[in-house]
Amino acid sequence: MTAAVTAAGLPVVDPAGLNERQLAGAACVSCGKRWPRPRRAVGVLPGGGRVYACPECAPQLELAIEARALDGAWDVGGGPPADGPRG
Length: 87
Prior knowledge:
The protein has helices at 20-23, 58-70; strands spanning 3-4, 40-44, 50-53, 74-75. The protein is an alpha+beta fold.
């Protein structure tokens, strides 16, 4: 499955399954932790808002984002990777 990525390199996150605090950026998108308030943007909602991760979850999420981008699972331009589809 190909997911959209913004020009900033953040994936577009499906809001299904996220609670109100996560959608508002007031809780970690991964674990739901609210304090300290998560500050690292790790995704963008379809409506344009960002989702954030806490200091404990952010490194793992960023590694997953990077790995999927390098693997060609995400495509910024809207089509297959420049060297053709992967898989």
